[in-house]
Amino acid sequence: MRALVQRVTSASVRVDGDEVGRITPPAGGHGLLVLVGITHTDDEAKAALLAKKVWTMRILENEQSASDLDAPVLVASQFTLMADTRRGRRPSWSAAAPRPVAEPLVDEFTGALRELGATVETGVFGEHMEISLVNDGPVTLLIDV
């Protein structure tokens, strides 16, 4: 399981022209945009571990975490995070889990964040999403569990 985490001052996601998720932290505050990729060997335990790691990672102001500041989180599934680009010019997607495996684990990750106390907005699994964000710093981390 892999997450690309970005510290943002705002983020939103649109599907078919309609906004389906938005985070707008208080003035001067931050939130997190989290793109999540699932592979074949991932499970609920990894989803919970990744959620805890994202929620407690000290990447916000004054080395605080999202949990310290009650920062909002926008989560979107992103199978392309599992791309294998080592050979040739065409990425391989074979490491990405199929929808019946991946979708419940993205939901599990989102649910685990909520259980930890996060305010979470989401994209729509399997849909073409347009994500807008203001990355602050920029701060972008790739987290594997």
Task: Give descriptors for this structure.
145 residues; alpha/beta; D-tyrosyl-trna(Tyr) Deacylase, Chain: A; six-stranded mixed beta sheet; 3 helices
Could you explain how this protein is built, in words?
With 145 residues, this protein is an alpha/beta fold. The protein has one domain (2-85, 92-137): D-tyrosyl-tRNA(Tyr) deacylase (D-tyrosyl-trna(Tyr) Deacylase, Chain: A), CATH 3.50.80. 23% of the residues lie in helices and 35% in strands. It has 3 helices and 6 strands; from the N terminus they run βββααβαββ. Strands 1, 2, 3, 4, 5 and 6 form a 6-stranded mixed sheet that branches. Strand 4, helix 3 and strand 5 form a beta-alpha-beta unit. Helix 1 packs across helix 3. The N and C termini lie close together (6 Å). The mean pLDDT is 96.
Domain module count: 1
Number of H/I helices: 3
User: Could you say what the CATH architecture is?
Assistant: 3-Layer(bba) Sandwich
The CATH class label is Alpha Beta
CATH topology: D-tyrosyl-trna(Tyr) Deacylase, Chain: A
Shape call = globular
The H-level CATH homologous superfamily, spelled out, is D-tyrosyl-tRNA(Tyr) deacylase
Helix content: 10-25%
Q: N- to C-terminal separation?
A: 6 Å
Instruction: Tell me what portion of residues adopts beta-strand conformation.
Output: 35-45%
Alpha carbon gyration radius: 15 Å
User: Strand pairing plus helix content: what structural class?
Assistant: alpha/beta
Largest sheet at a glance?
6 strands, mixed
Q: How would you spell out the order of helices and strands?
A: EEEHHEHEE
Q: Note poorly predicted spans.
A: none
In total, how many beta strands? Answer: 6
Overall mean pLDDT stands at: 96
